[in-house]
């Protein structure tokens, strides 16, 4: 992100005509809306000083079935096109590019192909490939068979369904939240595209034919049905020239698919369905109440409904959220909660999870009664101002730390553009906020919104979803019945055709591609130096101690970012390390729970709900985390910092005192609130297992390879989820457990807040002095010195009151700094960690294998880093995804775990994939390798290192890189080492650390595959129901 003066060239290419130009001051951006004269294609250009340029082309895709044609087409379009007839240009360009983002995505009613890069040549290379892929794909029948669906005969001539999207959607639809969402949509939208699953239902995907896919492309991927967006400092005419010359010039005007409003219900309806579960017990039912609202294309109405949502559920003190949090008939609010404005017509969801089926009517009536109560009197000005404040923070905050800032902005406006609204209304909200402020002066306006859009809205659906322990087996049986029918109808000629298709597909997958057809950037295009945000350090006094204030000046768009840092292992400045709790805090079993609770509770003067309201009124909220890394030279040592953070508008200095109030005055006495939060944490954690399966598999496989890896697995991995469930069960029949937990949390809290503190402030230059002075003033009356003195005189350990379920989460003493795992391995003392399978709610596998490797500062680290993408690019992608049918797979070097990891996700195979992991090592050591493959792997590593973050994110990243001894000099050294890696280096480290070496396997597997994984040598653990 550049801070230099920027003058945008806003001249359009002559093939486009200007519809609107708007300068948006709050975003330092000019928006140009233009239309391609010949085809009617819409182009939205966001001229901005950033040199991370971004682009997307998207289409209105509105399937009227659940065969998955929109999703499968998104995959197949990226498998070769007219100008680039290689098998997988998308994956090949990931390797041949300095992209900071490349992907494709299918939503309910649109498909988009976005990318971003900081290199101008790369931008136009990717533009050529993306335009050709979307407008002129080959849609080869064998690519449809590989990516979508095919019937293949096994070794016994029995037919099987295979296909990457088929397996991906099997994995996706094994998650209870996905099942819940699609069931609600099915009833809420009886006649429009949202009635169906655009990703594809595994029961319907086998019905899709290749001809239908070709027809879907012809009818939907036309310029007249497209929305094109670009962002950054490349002149708009240059992008438009390429769009026109490479694609649009070849088309005439065509059909645009217009979004259609849903046929409104004349009365509310109720529906009951089931979701897949291992065990069907009590307190597992979902109740969802959903209303269909107006179209998103009216910006004022959309903002009014955002205000309505905020009033009802913005924070724990908001009336509907508070009602659901403490509801006696359920454990937590529904995961479907709030305003969804991603569709043509908006939806408001509410409801409960962890309930029982017989409570459906009571839950719905209770929600209606609560809404009536809120609508019966005016909403107070303070509440309204809080929500308007949150809307402004959301608009001003520059993201870009997980997805490039420009792409974030484009995608925020994309759903409005695709539904023929004006996305400027999304990016420029000041005018509409002013309108909103005028409306709320009428005390009845907001209550009337509740009446019109919720209470008097007849298009309301109540869905009850109950667990069904036999549903997975029924779905499998239905699939098998279908396969049996196919088998009965197969003639000898049919079998020959299927066998030939399998041979042709294998030959196509094995055939070398002529990658010289694709454009590329090379190592000569890599920037010579890294970008590293520099700040200043000021010596100040916080809590009566000498402290350091890290000041960073950045273009933060009217916000400031403030964090307090409490060292746990490494001193900052002249701090006395003897005061630091090197192990007692880091090893504490309740630390992850403490972090999730800290900013959600009340204080010694405010209830939890009052404190939440105060946070929302003055800040984006307060968060607590641990920043923890394995030391660069020792796998058993870690550097660790406790961090409490917030961000706020420059005009809201109250957030500085607010953060101190959270740290020094929080109490753990509201047991009901703690119970609500922990129940929500457990329910959300369990629901997300299927989506993050490979992460848990890698965490499990590497759990014995460094102290940090052990901590992450035991404290935040699957054992911790089981411990939380056991505790909640125990505490439900023994109230004394809540006292025990609260006492233990308070002991930990007192220990943490007694420690010396330091601070970070990131803001615009003219704000630095004022905010820095406010930070110092804030801590002048700190309680920390008094608490520290009390703790020094007390004998009690902070481990004294830990509930048994968490206390039993034992750390291996060998992984607490007593010995170095790498040295132990080199001395032929193998780490005794078993291969482990976790049975979880999924119907596909997530596989991982981990090998012990050195910490980050070792001479072999650079080669190990490059080895991971080299193996993925050259072998694993083709084997695991193309041949094996998994959604994805690869390898990675993990400096925190001191592990080299192989992984696959949403994988129909288990044993075969572990064989692929091993085979990739043999491929590297025994097959010819090329310098071009090496350059591609290095490019991937460097583009990841150079990926820019937001202005505030870059400052935070730099600050903590220095604290974890990975500052600018170390990063330059590592970059130089990566650029110097050779193929011989890769082969040497593969032989030394991987080939034939002891390693640990892990898998997350479906419950019904217990015997399969046992036969493969895994010990079995299970997520408890």
Characterize this entry briefly.
The chain is an alpha+beta fold and 1025 residues long. It contains 37 helices and 28 strands.
Walk me through the structure.
The protein has 1025 residues and is an alpha+beta fold. The chain has 37 helices and 28 strands. Strand 1 (16-24) and strand 2 form a beta hairpin. Helix 31 (861-883) crosses helix 33 (931-946). The protein is globular and about 85 Å long. The relative contact order is 0.10. The model is unreliable at 817-830 (pLDDT under 50).
Let me know the largest β-sheet.
8 strands, mixed
Structural Rg: 29 Å
Please bin the fraction of helical residues. Answer: 40-55%
Show unreliable segments: 817-830
The number of helical runs is 37
Q: What sort of overall outline do the alpha carbons produce when their principal axes are compared? A: globular
Class by SSE composition: alpha+beta
The averaged pLDDT comes out at: 93
Strand content: 15-25%
Number of strands: 28
The N- and C-terminal alpha carbons lie at a distance of: 47 Å
Please write out the topology.
Blueprint: E1 16-24, E2 29-36, E3 42-47, E4 53-60, H1 69-76, H2 89-95, E5 99-102, E6 105-106, E7 110-117, H3 120-135, H4 141-147, E8 150-153, E9 159-162, H5 164-172, H6 176-188, H7 210-220, E10 226-232, H8 236-246, E11 269-276, E12 285-295, H9 299-313, H10 319-325, E13 332-333, E14 338-340, E15 345-355, H11 360-375, H12 381-396, H13 405-418, H14 424-427, H15 430-439, H16 445-455, E16 460-468, H17 471-489, H18 492-510, E17 536-542, E18 545-553, E19 559-567, H19 591-597, H20 608-618, E20 622-631, E21 634-649, H21 654-665, H22 671-687, H23 693-701, H24 707-716, H25 718-732, H26 736-753, E22 758-763, H27 768-778, H28 784-793, H29 804-807, H30 821-826, E23 836-840, E24 845-852, H31 861-883, E25 888-894, E26 899-907, H32 911-926, H33 931-946, H34 951-963, H35 968-979, H36 983-994, E27 999-1006, H37 1010-1015, E28 1019-1022
Parallel strand pairs: 3-10, 11-16, 18-22, 23-27, 23-28
Antiparallel strand pairs: 1-2, 2-3, 4-7, 4-10, 5-7, 6-7, 8-9, 12-15, 12-16, 13-15, 14-15, 17-18, 19-21, 19-22, 20-21, 24-26, 24-27, 25-26
Helix pairs in contact: 1-7, 3-8, 4-18, 9-12, 9-15, 11-16, 12-20, 22-25, 24-25, 31-32, 31-33, 31-35, 31-36
């Amino acid at each position: 992100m550049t801070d230099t003066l920027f003058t945008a060239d806003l001249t359009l290419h002559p093939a486009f005509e200007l519809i609107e130009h708007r300068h948006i001051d709050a975003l330092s951006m000019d928006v140009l809306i233009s239309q391609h004269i010949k085809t009617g294609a819409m182009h939205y250009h966001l001229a901005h000083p950033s040199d991370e340029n971004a682009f997307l082309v998207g289409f209105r895709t509105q399937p009227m079935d659940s065969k998955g044609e929109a999703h499968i087409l998104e995959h197949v379009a990226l498998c070769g096109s007219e100008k680039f007839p290689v098998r997988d240009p998308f994956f090949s360009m990931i390797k041949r590019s300095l992209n900071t983002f490349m992907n494709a995505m299918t939503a309910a009613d649109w498909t988009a192909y976005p990318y971003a890069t900081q290199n101008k040549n790369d931008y136009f290379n990717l533009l050529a490939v993306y335009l050709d892929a979307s407008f002129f794909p080959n849609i080869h029948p064998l690519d449809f068979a590989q990516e979508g669906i095919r019937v293949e005969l096994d070794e016994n001539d029995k037919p099987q369904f295979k296909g990457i999207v088929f397996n991906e959607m099997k994995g996706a639809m094994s998650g209870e939240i996905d099942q819940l969402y699609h069931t609600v949509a099915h009833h809420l939208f009886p006649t429009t595209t949202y009635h169906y699953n655009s990703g594809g239902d595994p029961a319907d995907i086998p019905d899709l034919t290749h001809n239908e896919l070709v027809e879907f492309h012809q009818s939907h991927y036309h310029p007249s049905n497209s929305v094109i967006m670009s962002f950054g400092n490349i002149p708009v005419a240059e992008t438009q020239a390429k769009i026109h010359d490479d694609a649009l010039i070849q088309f005439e005007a065509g059909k645009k698919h217009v979004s259609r409003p849903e046929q409104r219900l004349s009365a509310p309806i109720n529906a009951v369905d089931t979701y897949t579960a291992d065990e069907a017990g009590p307190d597992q039912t979902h109740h969802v109440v959903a209303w269909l609202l107006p179209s998103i294309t009216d910006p004022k109405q959309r903002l009014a409904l955002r205000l309505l949502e905020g009033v009802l559920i913005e924070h724990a003190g908001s009336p509907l959220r508070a009602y659901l949090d403490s509801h006696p008939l359920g454990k937590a609010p529904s995961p479907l909660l709030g305003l969804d404005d991603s569709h043509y017509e908006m939806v408001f969801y509410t409801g409960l999870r962890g309930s029982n089926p017989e409570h459906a009517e009571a839950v719905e009536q209770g929600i209606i009664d609560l809404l009536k109560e809120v609508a019966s009197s005016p909403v107070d000005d303070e509440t309204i101002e809080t929500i308007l404040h949150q809307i402004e923070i959301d608009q001003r905050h520059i993201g870009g730390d997980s997805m490039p800032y420009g792409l974030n902005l484009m995608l925020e406006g994309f759903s409005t553009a695709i539904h023929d609204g004006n996305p400027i209304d999304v990016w420029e909200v000041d005018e509409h906020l002013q309108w909103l402020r005028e409306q709320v002066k009428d005390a009845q306006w907001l209550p009337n919104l509740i009446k019109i859009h919720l209470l008097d809205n007849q298009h309301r659906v109540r869905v009850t979803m109950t667990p069904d322990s036999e549903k997975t087996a029924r779905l499998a049986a239905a699939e098998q019945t279908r396969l049996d029918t196919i088998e009965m109808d197969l003639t000898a000629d049919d079998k020959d055709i299927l066998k030939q298709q399998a041979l042709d597909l294998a030959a196509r997958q094995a055939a070398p591609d002529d990658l010289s057809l694709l454009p590329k950037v090379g190592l000569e295009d890599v920037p010579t130096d890294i970008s590293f945000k520099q700040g200043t350090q000021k010596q100040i006094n916080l809590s009566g101690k000498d402290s350091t204030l890290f000041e960073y000046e950045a273009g933060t768009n009217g916000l400031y970012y403030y964090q307090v840092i409490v060292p746990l292992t490494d001193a900052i400045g002249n701090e006395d390390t003897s005061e630091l709790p090197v192990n007692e805090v880091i090893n504490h079993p309740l630390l992850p729970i403490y972090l999730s609770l800290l900013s959600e509770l009340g204080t010694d003067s405010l209830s939890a709900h009052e404190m939440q309201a105060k946070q929302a009124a003055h800040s984006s909220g307060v968060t607590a985390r641990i920043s923890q890394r394995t030391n660069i030279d020792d796998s058993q040592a870690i550097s660790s910092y406790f961090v409490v953070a917030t961000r706020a508008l420059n005009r809201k200095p109250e957030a500085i005192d607010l953060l101190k109030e959270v740290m020094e005055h929080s109490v753990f006495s509201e047991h009901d609130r703690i119970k609500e939060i922990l129940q929500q944490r457990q329910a959300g954690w369990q629901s997300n297992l299927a989506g993050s399966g490979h992460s848990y598999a890698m965490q499990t496989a590497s759990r014995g390879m460094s102290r940090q890896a052990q901590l992450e697995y035991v404290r935040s991995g699957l054992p911790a989820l089981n411990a939380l469930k056991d505790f909640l069960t125990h505490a439900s029949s023994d109230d004394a457990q809540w006292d025990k937990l609260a006492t233990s949390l308070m002991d930990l809290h007192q220990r943490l807040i007694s420690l010396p503190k330091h601070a970070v402030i990131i803001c615009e230059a003219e704000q630095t002095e004022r905010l820095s002075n406010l930070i110092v003033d804030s801590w002048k009356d700190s309680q920390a010195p008094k608490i520290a003195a009390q703790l020094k005189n007390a004998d009690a350990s902070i481990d004294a009151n830990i509930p048994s379920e968490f206390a039993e989460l034992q750390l291996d003493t060998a992984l607490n700094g007593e010995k170095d795992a790498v040295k132990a391995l080199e001395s032929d003392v193998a780490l005794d960690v078993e291969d482990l399978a976790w049975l979880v709610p999924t119907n596909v596998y997530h596989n991982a294998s981990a090998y012990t490797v050195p910490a980050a500062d070792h001479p072999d680290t650079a080669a190990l880093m490059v080895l991971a993408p080299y193996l993925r690019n050259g072998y694993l992608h083709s084997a695991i995804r193309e041949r094996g049918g998994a959604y994805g797979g690869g390898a990675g070097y993990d400096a925190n775990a001191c592990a080299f990891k192989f992984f696959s996700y949403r994988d129909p195979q288990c044993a075969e994939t572990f064989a692929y992991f091993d085979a990739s090592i043999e491929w590297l050591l025994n097959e010819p390798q090329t310098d071009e493959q090496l350059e591609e792997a290095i490019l991937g590593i460097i583009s990841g290192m150079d990926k820019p973050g937001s202005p505030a994110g870059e400052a935070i990243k730099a600050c903590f890189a220095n604290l974890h001894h990975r500052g600018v000099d170390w990063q330059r050294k590592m970059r130089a080492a990566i650029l110097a890696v050779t193929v011989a280096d890769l082969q040497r480290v593969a032989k030394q650390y991987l080939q034939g070496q002891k390693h640990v396997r892990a898998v997350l597997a479906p419950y019904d595959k217990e015997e399969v994984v046992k036969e493969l040598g895994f010990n079995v653990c299970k997520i408890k129901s």
